[in-house]
Design goal:
With about 375 residues, the chain is an alpha/beta fold. It has 2 domains: about 180 residues, Nucleotidyltransferase, domain 5 (2-Layer Sandwich); about 140 residues, Nucleotidyltransferase, domain 5, CATH 3.30.420.40. It contains 12 helices and 10 strands. Strand 2 and strand 3 form a beta hairpin. The longest helix has 29 residues. The chain starts with a strand and ends in a 21-residue tail after the last helix. Bound molecules: 5'-O-[(R)-(carboxyoxy)(hydroxy)phosphoryl]adenosine and zinc ion (ZN).
Amino acid sequence: MNILAIETSCDDTGVAILKIQNSKFKILSNIVSSQPIHQNYGGVFPMMAKREHQTNLVPTLIEALKLAKLINSKQKILNPKQIQKLKEIFEREEKLFEYTKNFLENYEKPKIDAIAVTYGPGLEPCLWVGVNFAKALSYIWELPIIPVNHIEAHILVNFLDSRFQILDSKKVFPAMALVVSGGHTQLILMKKIGKYEIIGETRDDAAGECFDKCAKILGLGYPGGPIISKIASEMKESNIKLPRPMMNSKDYDFSFSGLKTAVLYAVRDKKQDTITKQYVSEMCAEIQQAIIDVLLKKTLQAAKAYKAKTIILGGGVSANQELRKQFKIHNLEFRILFPEKKLSTDNGLMIAMAGYFNRTKKIAWQKLSAHANLRIGK
Ligand code: KG4
Ligand code: ZN
């Protein structure tokens, strides 16, 4: 089967096509169009991201179909009923209505069997763009929809091994998944695929958000994680000491807003001419280490308590080189899984993988809607 996957929950427009034949997986394409516009603002503005998704979706889909060799030009005029229906679907995305209509009238239906799409959690206006795009394609091409939970997708992208087969689950479960992204920091106990329980999460900012906000305070740009991590990698030791909020609490919850505030105060109280390159580098190294210390300690504690065989990392922050290195040290006690770096951050392939595992949960497009606060395991 060929799954077309669409991801628009935040500021990355992702489209992937995954082919599954006799339990063998082939990634036909995985295209991510990021939105550099947010670099100027130090964070994502949902309405701006929505506008960018509308512009990016059709070109990203065309690129993905071309790479997968599944595209064929063919003129096909949509009838008035179809056009009316598309207008209804895209009631709030007028630009995307035009682009999609034009696309559907110029290319024939590709060899796709189902459309997987992120329906939550995420930024509501952004989610709706992807959801409505999936609805439109599903309606015209008469294909079923597989609704995908974005957090589950960050976990399940780990289940493709280096031979492009599914991991042997006997060696994986129970597993403790740490999903660390711009919007989430959750510890999720996973008894099997599809069975999840959130055992801890952040009470305020997510770990990625903390990276982003600290980078903004230091005037380093957006997204903060990759920038802070790059600067930190040039610094062996730091003389700055930041707090590790909730590191020793008995539960599995996190808190990162205090860390950001500590950085804010430290920078505010420093004379402008003493904020040297050295100081910024030391600050970056300490921010990164404070976040890693808390994530590592809580995850190991949870994995031990729940007798997990595996620790699974996912989400944008799991792209962090130092975090990966410090988790890997524990690979004698636990199997440590993390995605290839470009699969840690948002992408369509993770949605396709989750779509594959949820392939029996297909629905008709009329039943689909976006759920910004969707939770895993409910
Ligand atoms: O999963 P993701 O792409 O989007 C969400 O679902 O939120 O995660 C984005 C987050 C951003 O906060 C970004 O700063 C962070 O992941 N991130 C990193 C790194 N790469 C991305 N954080 C730390 N180190 C990195 N190398
Ligand atoms: Zn994500």
